[in-house]
Each structure stands twice: as C-alpha cells, then as structure tokens.
Amino acid sequence: MATNYVLIDFENVQPKNLELLVQHPFRVFVFVGANQSKIPFDLASAMQSLGDSAQYVKIAGSGKNALDFHIACYVGELLSKDPSAYFHIISKDTGFDMLIKHLKSRHIKIQRESDLAEIPVLRISATSSNQDPIDAIVKNLVGRGQSRPRTVKTLTNTIKSLFTEEHTEQQINDVVKTLERRKLIKISDGKVSYRLNG
Asked: What is the pTM of this model?
C-alpha cells in the first residue's frame, strides 16, 4: 500500500481534527513558522498518539513563503525516496497550486486540501464507515474552526464534498435538517450559526 504523506502548513491551517489520521497509515509533518512559539494541547496530544508517524518541522528563518519552500523541499526529498507515495499539502495557500499542477503533469500523486477531512480516504463512506455520518460531519465542522460555512449554500456544498458516494440534493438537505433538528446548527435568513462542542 502506498504511503500517504501529510504536510501541514501550520502558519496557514491549525487543524483541530488531527485524530482523523490515527486509524490510517499516514506520515504527518507539521511545519511550524519561525515566529510560532505555541502549539495547542489538542494538536500536541494528537501528534503524540501518531507516534513515530508524526513529526514537527520548525523552520529556522522567516520571510515571504519561507515555510512554503520548506514544504516543497520536503516533498522533493520524500518523493526521491518514495516515488509511489501520495502527498497531501494541507494549506489554504493557493501558491502551492502551480507546483502541484507541474508535479501532477509528471504523474506524481499530490494535491492540496484546506482541511484534513478533505483527504479522499478520510471522506465519509456510507458503505464502509461504522461512524454515524452526522457525527463525522460534526467532527469535520469542528475541525474547520472559524472557517466553517456561513451560508446554507456553502454548508450543503461542504457536506456534499465530504461523501465518497454521490448524494442527491434532497439527501444533503435532509442532513442539514438533521443538524438543525439536533440543535447543532441554527439557520436564519439563509445564514448558519453553530452550536458545536469545539
């Protein structure tokens, strides 16, 4: 089985759902900026539970795109040792996209996701997962922190993207209604507010 490498741009994304990776064969690298001096307890605890599969990379210098260049360098190093691997750069920085496009043109399996839950193997499968899809969706939304969808339209699109199987508009709307019925979200004039634990 090919290794999945997850390279997290911690200056750009501070994931709260790293525990999603525990049940999967991932190697995780969290790139920490030179001026970042604190790591949240939940992240440190989740990294610890990943054991030898996880490590921090503290970059030495600061400057525009300094951390991005470190991630690109690590992709190159890992790729030279493990050419059949999958690479997941976790960042909202679209600056990675041209590099990714170039690497894909060379048949390298790499993509950028803005959240860990967007990694395809972690998306919710109705057939293979024992987890309640609503619980999985809530965990994803908690992990998004302040970047949660703020409108019903973006929430439905987000939920749709989390499922591996195709879902009808009605099925996605039913999921939104279930979240509302369980008082996990409140909808007012097309706007969504959250009552999640996290």
From this structure: 0.66
